[in-house]
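I hope you will forgive my troubling you with a question about protein structure. I set the record out below, with my sincere thanks for your time.
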Amino acid sequence: MNMNPIVCLEQTRSALADKSTPNITREKVRKRLPRYEREKLIVAEAIRFFAEVGFDGQTRALADRLGVTQPLLYRYFPDKEALIERVYREVFLSGWNSDWNRALVDRSKSLEERVVEFYQNYIKANFSYERIRLFMFAGLKDDSIAKRYMVHVRENLLVPLCHELRAAIGAPSDAAVTPAEIELVAGLHGAVGYVGLRRWVYHTQTSDGLNTVVGHLVRAYIVGITQAFRRMAETGYRQ
C-alpha cells in the first residue's frame, strides 16, 4: 500500500525532532560542571547536531540547542574546525578497533569467517543514525575528513584484505596490490555501508537482523571476489 508522501515527510521530520537536545541535556550544560564533563556533553550534542544538518551547521545554532552562549562554546573549542576535528576522532576513529585488524589476518580461521566477523563487529560499532549520516556528510561537504578516513580504511582494511584474498587462492601476496583489487574489496565495503544508508539516510525499511543480512552479503561477495582474484592472478595482474 502506497503511503501519502506528506505523511512520510512529517514522520521523517518528527523522527529528526526527537533527536534534538533534550531539556535535561541543556540543563546539564548550563550547570557548573567539571570541564571534561561539560566538554563531553558539548561533543555529544555536536555529533547529533552535525548528523542532522551536516557540517555546514553553524556553531551559533549548536550553542542555542545547548542553551549556552557561543563564546562559552569557544572556550572549549577555539573554532568550528577544532570542534569538527573532535567529532571526527569521536565518530570515525573511535569506531575502529585495532583488534579487528589482527583478527582479519588470523589464518587459523577461514577467510569467509574472518570477513563476516569483521563486518559484524564493524556494524555493531558504526551503524547508528549519527555515524551513518556523518559518514555521508563528510563525503559531501568535508573533503579533508573523507580523504583521511578513506586512507585509514585503505590501510587497515582494503589492502590487508587484498593480501588475504591472494593467500586464500594460493597466489603470491607480497607484491603491491593493484587498483583493480582495491576496487573489488571496496565494492564489498560499499555494499555493507549501503545497508546503513538505506536505513538512516533514505529512511527505507531494512531488516532488524543486520548481523544475518551482513553475513549473507559478505559470503556472496567473497565468492565473487575470490573468483575475480583467481582470474587476475592467472593473467599476472595485468591491468
